[in-house]
Amino acid sequence: MPTLPTPKKRQPSQNPPPAVLPWPGETELVGLVIELAPLNNDYLYPEYTIGLHAWFLAQVQQTHPELSRSLHDEQSEKAFTISGLEGELLTTGKDLQLQADKTYHWYINILSQPLAQWASKWLQNLPPVVDLRNAPLRIISCQIALPPTTYKELLTTSLFRTSTVQLTFLTPTSFRSKQHHFPLPVPKNLFHSYLRRWNDFADIKIPQDQFLNWIEETVIIHRHKIESAKVIAGKKGSVTGFTGAIELGLSKKVNENSDFGQYFYALAQLAPYCGTGHKTTFGLGQTRIGWLLSDILPVSPRENLLASRIAELTEKFIANRRRTGGTRAQEIAETWATILARRELGESLNAIAIDLEMPYETVKTYIKLARRSLKANEEKANEE
Questions:
Q1: What is the pTM assigned to this prediction?
Q2: pLDDT at residue 17, rounded to an integer
């Protein structure tokens, strides 16, 4: 596998200087961007956003265990989103490679007041390194990417107007529909996604059914440019999602309910903070306001290959199970497929077990069952 010339290896420094990021105590929403530098020309494994996700949660757990439990277990919607790494990632065969002489940006968005209060303290004593498996990244700085605000401020500053809303989906975006992925930016799905986060964290609640019916009747798609892509779905499985941009406007019916028009613009302003669709805590559904097609992030060949293989194996495992109804069969098939596909691409069972938060022996058993299922599938095909 080709490699870059290796520059003088960087050593982790002392903690980076405290981030000067004051925000009011009532802040509920804020976006951060952390500038990172590789210590060497390291390779990234396709599922590296799992490592970023785990590292961030570990930071919360170390300093605020109660908040960590809430983020992990209690809330139906997660109070944060993260991105992948933005910067010059070299494609070398099936892999991505960091460049030690470049810097990269990682975005973390906060969606609740308790997490915003924690982050304001955490940023004053940032650790020196983001400890990503086989690719440690030195923290250079942290800045505000999306201004600190509250849900009430989004609502009160969202002046009722007739201008259009443009949204760009930088990373593959998808919705869950009838146990399948739905990779289209239908307005009702978009705003249902934003509304779920709003009603989970905001004091001012928006009536869901009435508002979504209003969206269906009132919101018009003026133009769009989207493409589909298959990517890894967080810890397990694959997702068929879309990237691209869409421009939305309101029909004349908007005058029938000015409150809903105000909600429409407020939720559009929420989109960059909360992302769109599902798996936003693993880098999917990253959203920006505006028509920004040049900012869309490419899917690496290795990730596309791995996601396609996971999807292929999942279908085979479901077909081999006697009972395919419900979510249980789908979950087992996705788990087997993820483990086997990652192993086929050379990852160790120990690394897979860590990412999936599963015992090593369980992962070892699952890969045996997966291979046995594939063998049965081949024997059946030969008989036919």
A1: 0.86
A2: 52
